[in-house]
Amino acid sequence: MKEYRTISQIAGPLVFVEKTEPVGYSELVNIVQADGTIKRGQVLDTSDELVVVQCFETTAGLGRDSGVRFLGETIKMPVGSQMLGRILSGSGKPKDGGPEIVPEKRLDIGGAAINPYARDTPRQFIQTGISTIDGTNTLVRGQKLPIFSGSGLPHNEIALQIARQSKVPGSTEEFAVVFAAMGITKEEENQFMQDFERTGALEHAVVFLNLADDPAVERIVTPRLALTTAEYLAFELDYHVLVILTDMTNYCEALRQIGAAREEVPGRRGYPGYMYTDLASIYERAGIIKGKKGSVTQFSILTMPGDDITHPIPDLSGYITEGQIVVSRELHRKGIYPPINVLPSLSRLMNLGIGEGMTREDHKKVSDQLYAGYAEGVDLRGLVAIVGKDALSERDRLFLEFADLFEDRFVRQGHNEDRAIKEDTLDLGWELLATLPEEQLVRIDRELIHKYHPKYRKKAAAESGTSSATASDLRSESM
Amino acid sequence: MVTAVDLDAHMYDVVKVGHEQLMGEVIKIQGENTIIQVYEDTSGIRPGEPVENTGLSLAVELGPGLLTSIYDGIQRPLEVLVEKMGDFIERGVTAPGLSHEKKWEFVPVKKAGDSVGPGTIIGEVQETNIVHRITVPPNLEGGVIREIKTGSFTVDETVCVLEDGTELTMMQKWPVRVPRPVIEKKNPDIPLITGQRILDGLFPIAKGGTAAIPGPFGSGKTVTQQALAKWSDAEIVVYIGCGERGNEMTEVLTEFPELEDPRTGKPLMERTVLIANTSNMPVAAREASVYTGITIAEYFRDMGYDVSLMADSTSRWAEAMREISSRLEEMPGEEGYPAYLAARLSEFYERAGRVETLNEDMGSVTVIGAVSPPGGDFSEPVTQNTLRIVKVFWALDAKLAQRRHFPAINWLNSYSLYLDSLHDWYDENVNPEWNRIRIWAMEVLQKEAELQEIVQLVGSDALPEEEQVTIEVARLIREVFLQQNAFDPVDTYCSMAKQYDMLKAIKTYADRASAAQKAGALTSQIVAIKAKNELPQVKFEKDYKPLLDKIYAQMDAEFNAMKEA
């Protein structure tokens, strides 16, 4: 292989090489330092005269005396079935002291787009055991649902709880977790790893770690390696894969850093203009394919700078992902875990996965009514601050109390509390709704009210003379 | 982006790049250098690989076979691509837009000796339940027919020969960036009925009109657009998923074929063309997808059909322009968008309209474009430039969506500039009273907004008695009339007659309430009238008249009882 010693310029992570033979776009590059150390990079721009190489590691130690070798192929990820249980670095090298991955296949990490025609509609309900997700922002297999959080909020705990508890009720299919960390701290890494080991989750997980002190450029490839692995596990080995990407904000920072080094025209807040397309090439790698057994479901975590949901990172993410789970500082301050604010949260695929035959026929309407009631109660809090509680009408007072009750009972739950959808989440919803006057439940048809409202259920239970405990009794035991 | 040297090319010519023959388009010519935007991923392409010019600009194939098709942004049928290269979209695969093998039954409507001009309909093909009218391509001169055939042909076979020897087939090609010609644009004075109460009732769009749906993410934009595609009374629907989510596109792709057209009972897909270019498919194809869609829409318009085109979302399209422009290192305008953004947007929306076709029929293309302003900020360039052009604005509101008020269209910020031109139509076709009731409803809602500000400060009990009733009436309008459940089998579509009956019932309550109040009844009694609590149920009843009669009777009884008391 030819080694060029024609480096003309090094700027940040970029190395400019002159007078090469034709080099392909996106090709992999080895840069050999004077002392023989090899650093890896990728071709960003190519022409007859000049090739721009982006180095995945720090360019410290590189100089005009370094050699450049073009490998003639684009980045490929070696994948194989024995990857489960392994911990790899952000660039895919073993980090757990184990052997190199024996590749069964080498896949292009860019990942081609799934033909929309080949996709199957995601409609299989995933139970996370968290009421605010299952009940009001339901996750389905093949969905991409990010957690919008802020610094200092317990998004990692929520992600771990989801990874731990997620299941399709009544299903025994094989599942796997692919975990990709981008720029997280060592402490956060420990938190994740300890939890994985404690719960035995590591056995069916593949972990990619790019830590805060690893090169930023490596962060660009980490999620792509993880998703390539996930797609292999899902579409070739029939696993149901849950991909957790954290933290996408660090990824975007890396993207901006490289854009700036390439002297590109910056877009909003200095992020590159192509960030939407770039993020789409990550988030869109989730879904189900017709005729394939497996699926890729994505949970990405991003911290909103300054809790600003209009910041380009959460904004562009929200346009690509199928909803978002918003973690609220206000609820966190109130000591509520998980502090998920359901009002700005949304699951766009929710309606596909709920209802009769999937969860329960009343799911959608109960969810709508809970939303409406809580939104109204939260609005009234502002009014109370001005006029005091006494000035409220009886109806308004009930809604105000409903909002408090909703946060305290529906939102709040234990770190290890795994709520079943029908018995716990939905019935709890009904119990809370029962505190409102029945004629205020305008989102629910009369029929469903008669079937599920605790008042009628008690009546029905009393009439049929059964001695079974009512829904509310059951719950007070479990709590 | 690829630069080729010594390529004899013209602007927007389609070229094939490299050994893999990737499709691209010439977007800049600079001396000997030709700058090419490639529609596919360019990984592994090296300097020195060949570039071949096709000499044609990006064109679509128009003819029988369009309906029920699902294309990517450059009219490659996705179904064929799955067969050719599997579940993922690989590079360098081409597929014609129409099937060149399938035979269609051609029935001529002209005979030998007839003279035909550009755009004249020469025959018909029963494509689905829609009759596909075959026209003389608008760029031909026409002449006198020497021979016209009957029978079964592929789209490549000649079906008609003119005296001057011109051979006509059932297929024509048209460059996507050029609008198809018409005789004249007409005034839009017929509404596009969508079955959505807030749209038909308060903010109607005319056939051939333009509308924008902006909305922060999560405000139900896609659901609204899909409801429009399903229910609007256009004969042909063209849906462009431009930079859309893959899973949502799949929802459309799987849902449409299952949906029944409420008027024919046939699958809705039979009158639909879908264009799906998801956000992770190449950006250049996304830029082209909007033009591909509108050209197909114009083609059906030229047959005399009413076509509705949904573009979701034009912001993604504008972003594609921005990306391409920034790679060209053009001087950026506002927020990095190219300076020609406004021009491109208005060119696109101007291709809408109700027209007299070259065949002297009436046809229309209604364009409904979604914009997704970043951070819900309506002052950003794409939204602002769009609002300058479109006549209808359906302001989606995330706050309403959070309260699960759907469709989450804000009644205070939305507008329609077609109200005047549609006035007569409503008079004749709905009820002479309709326009008045509509204005009344808007007044109540406006009034409520003002009162809400006071309520926010001092609480609802502090309002004068009369206005407490207004608040109650406004609540009924919002919850009964404006809220509509797209997932309920009955409520998903509401006819104009039902819309009138519902609003009329609310108005009746309001009138009686204000009469009772003048007669000295207590506000609390008026607000407690039980009959109106049944009104939401009217939405979910297919045969709603008996229920409505019952409500009227009960209302009557209750108010009379109040009077006696």
Query: Tally the helices of chain A: what do you get?
Result: 15
Radius of gyration of chain B: 27 Å
Structural class of chain A: alpha/beta
Pairing-aware structural class of the strands and helices of chain B? alpha+beta
Q: What is the number of E strands of chain B?
A: 26
- Shape descriptor of chain A: elongated
Mean pLDDT of chain B comes to 89
Distance between the termini of chain A: 67 Å
- Number of beta strands of chain A: 22
The strand order across the widest sheet of chain A is 9-17-16-18-20-15-21-22
Strand content of chain A: 15-25%
Low-confidence stretches of chain B: none
Query: What fraction of residues of chain B sit in β-strands?
Result: 15-25%
Biggest contact: A-B, 87 and 74 residues
Query: Helix fraction of chain A?
Result: 25-40%
Enumerate how many helices of chain B there are, as a single number. Answer: 16
Question: What form of chain B results from the Cα inertia axes?
Answer: globular
Measured distance between first and last alpha carbons of chain B = 82 Å
User: Biggest sheet of chain B: strands, sense, closure?
Assistant: 10 strands, mixed
Helix content class of chain B: 25-40%
Q: Explain this structure to me?
A:
The complex is a heterodimer of chains A (about 475) and B (about 575). Chain A has about 475 residues and is an alpha/beta fold. Helices cover about 35% and strands about 25% of the residues of chain A. Chain A has an eight-stranded mixed β-sheet with strand order 9-17-16-18-20-15-21-22, sandwiched between helices. In chain A, strand 4 (about 25-30) and strand 5 form a beta hairpin. In chain A, helix 10 packs across helix 12 and helix 11 runs antiparallel to helix 12. The longest helix of chain A is centred in the last third of the chain and has 25 residues, at about 365-385. In chain A, about 50% of the residues are buried. Chain B contains 16 helices and 26 strands. In chain B, the strands form five sheets. In chain B, strands 7, 18, 19, 20, 21, 22, 23, 24, 25 and 26 form a ten-stranded mixed β-sheet that branches. In chain B, a hairpin with a 4-residue loop joins strand 2 and strand 3 (about 20-30).
